[in-house]
Amino acid sequence: MFELLLFIAGDSNLSRRAVSNLERLCEDSLGEQCAVEVIDILKNPALARQHRVIATPMAVRVTPLPQRKVIGDLSDAARFFEGLGIPRRGVE
Fold first, then answer.
1. Are 6 and 22 in contact (CB under 8 A)?
2. Rounded Cα–Cα distance for residues 22 and 34 (Å)
3. Using CA atoms, how far apart are residues 82 and 85, in angstroms rounded to an integer?
4. Fold of 2-84
5. Pairing relation of β-strands 2-8 and 34-40?
6. Residue-wise pLDDT tens digits, 53-76
7. pTM of the entire structure?
8. Cis before 66? omega within 30
9. Is 32 left (phi over 0), alpha (psi -120 to 50) or beta?
């Protein structure tokens, strides 16, 4: 099971695109093996500091450890999976 956090900043086009892309990536490639929480840093700056968010949107793989991060709108699936160290379903 992969626990992911997606840090966004408000309701911008970039934030909405990142949320949509992450939902698609998880649904298409991870299915039930993915739990996602979207966090708006404007509403929860303490959590952003705790996870050392340096830019948004930023996806963080919380579990399994170690944590890994990737920045961007998550439109590049290969970069997303490689950056977070997540194997794609059906790909070894």
1. yes
2. 10
3. 5
4. Glutaredoxin (3.40.30)
5. parallel
6. 999 999 999 999 999 999 999 999
7. 0.91
8. yes
9. alpha
